[in-house]
Design goal:
Two copies of one chain form a homodimer. Chain A is mainly alpha-helical. Chain A starts with a helix and ends in a 6-residue tail after the last helix. At the A-B interface, helix 1, helix 2 and helix 7 of A face helix 1, helix 2, helix 3, helix 5 and helix 8 of B. Chain B binds a DNA duplex (30 and 30 nucleotides) through helix 5 and helix 7.
DNA sequence: GTAAAAATCACCCAAAAGGATGAGGGTCTC
DNA sequence: GAGACCCTCATCCTTTTGGGTGATTTTTAC
């Protein structure tokens, strides 16, 4: 969600700049008031192109950035449990989670209550600084906590 | 290729119409020559939005597929896709899902409604014969639908 | 042009997941 | 024996997912 804002900001600035130059042009270069339509057309065309470009940028940039973090060529393998403070039990839960098990399944496999599993996972998520289990699995792999 | 042309045509017509109304407005409603900047700003904004929309319409489908092939040299995409019957759009959703995005995020990224994303994912789950998205990601990787 | 497939969106419902907080018991160390 | 962890479980509440169904539009294929 951070990129949204930077993109919007960037686009806003560009727009502002163009508007400024527009104003400038009006008083300096062209004063064809009779050819108002021409002027409008040029503006329209220009900003249409800009809009298309911005749209592409906006839509195209996000996945690329995510990919980049997702495919980490050299994962720091020994940034282990202790570095982030993940406990053995949490790691165990994490492993089962990565295998696609539901919380209930994990609870059954480890002879735990569902609530306990949820607590572990909740702690895991905050320790890995993510919000969803899918992200947790990804991050754990890049951190070397899980085999890829 | 048929839609491209219809889109272009439609866009051209819209542009023409807007230019016409622009001209009309100039002679009828607003004659604020001093507020030229305002006028230009409105045009710019309007056509920017239009441009973004047009860009999305026009080129909306391609970038995603291009990104994907660029990111991964040899994804046996077509083979496996057709084998299980996964559509391009579903694959796209699957990819974002594998990056840890929530349904809402995917909806925002693809400019879709949440319901649509849910439909795609629901179809994905049944096609992959799994019950959870974590399992779907795993299975998609073993099937070569996603890079490992 | 028609038929099939794909894409879009809606509504309903149930289950799962996630966030916050508290609490009891166990172990270990200083 | 106090403090620091860890493990366990609970409760309450919100959000997210998943399942099912139906409908409309768009695209593709023949």
């Amino acid at each position: 969600m951070k990129n949204h804002w930077s993109n919007i900001l960037f686009y806003g600035l560009t727009l502002g700049l163009l508007l400024a130059s527009l104003q400038f042009l009006q008083y300096k270069w062209v004063l064809l008031k009779s050819d108002f339509e021409w002027y409008g057309g040029i503006i329209a065309l220009l900003f249409t192109v800009l809009g298309i470009w911005a749209g592409q940028q906006w839509k195209g940039k996000k996945p690329a950035l995510v990919e980049q973090t997702a495919q980490h060529p050299f994962p720091p393998r020994d940034v282990n449990m202790t570095a982030i403070g993940i406990t053995p039990r949490e790691l165990q839960v994490l492993q089962l989670m990565a295998l696609g098990h539901s919380n209930q399944e994990i609870a059954d496999l480890l002879f735990l209550s569902l609530n306990t599993v949820k607590t572990h996972i909740s702690n895991l998520l905050s320790k890995l600084d993510v919000e969803r289990r899918t992200q947790a699995i990804l991050k754990a792999k890049t951190l070397g906590l899980l085999p890829k």
